[in-house]
Design a protein that fits this description.
Layout lengths: L7 H8 L9 E3 L15 E5 L2 H11 L10 H13 L7 H11 L19 H10 L9 E4 L12 E5 L16 H13 L3 E6 L7 E10 L7 E9 L6
Parallel strand pairs: 1-2, 1-4, 2-3, 4-5
Antiparallel strand pairs: 5-7, 6-7
């Protein structure tokens, strides 16, 4: 869980190694686009959080956006999000406020990040996200469950799924892992190349990369985890 920015270049060397001209690169769990923004060519980014996708589409269109997000504004947007309403804010605005103002990008699920005497976390997130704007051109954005996304033939599919056994985002609770791994197998049978980030995978999946990575998702401590990249290949039998 969390940003893949630190390991993006390493895993992309593996994921894109055999990419052909014009071949689509697809992320059904696109999140913060920290892998996607380092890939060029044909790209599809999808997520089941409709507000997040509305935010990315709005940024792609350079929609007007807030540069300051005080706590009371954050709370009002969170109420709209929890109620599923658009009385004061549209989907783009709810996505922007949540992504910029929530602790560690947890989308109204980790509290308001705000600022301290030394750091303005909201402003940092806004600046970091706006650095990505020029990298969004050409990305096709979709919203919905990973299993419903239409994937072009012979695509490269990278899945940064909710890690099993970790605290889940509100949009990923009750994630069906057995269904997901079978979906990956089925994609490979259809001719796609599939790669998955996780700590562990079923025995028939192959670990093609691993590395210890410091994780600061916890508010008071940093832990070291072993990030792994898995793929699935059809048996010759």
């Amino acid at each position: 869980m969390g940003s893949k920015n630190k390991i993006a270049n390493e895993i992309l060397q593996i994921i894109l190694k055999d990419r052909k001209e014009g071949q689509f690169y697809v992320e059904p769990f696109c999140g913060g686009l920290n892998i996607m923004d380092k890939v060029d060519g044909n790209r599809i980014a999808s997520d089941n959080n409709k507000y997040l996708i509305a935010m990315w589409i709005g940024l792609q269109e350079d929609k007007k956006r807030l540069k300051e997000i005080p706590r009371e504004l954050y709370v009002r947007a969170r109420t709209e999000y929890n109620n599923g309403t658009n009385i004061e804010f549209d989907d783009f605005e709810i996505g922007w406020i949540a992504w910029m103002g929530s602790y560690n990008g947890r989308f109204f699920d980790g509290g308001y990040s705000g600022k301290t005497e030394k750091r303005d976390y909201v402003n940092e997130q806004i600046l970091n996200t706006e650095k990505q704007l020029k990298l969004l051109n050409g990305i096709i954005f979709k919203s919905g469950d990973y299993s419903t996304i239409e994937i072009p033939e012979n695509s490269i599919v990278y899945c940064d799924i909710p890690y099993k056994g970790t605290k889940q985002y509100s949009t990923s609770k009750n994630f069906n892992y057995e269904k997901f791994w079978q979906w990956c197998r089925d994609l490979v049978k259809m001719g796609h190349s599939v790669f998955i980030s996780e700590y562990a995978a079923p025995e028939d999946f192959i670990c093609v990369w691993e590395k210890p990575v410091k994780n600061s998702m916890h508010p008071t401590k940093t832990i070291t985890t072993i990030e792994k990249l898995f793929t699935f290949k059809l048996s010759d039998n």
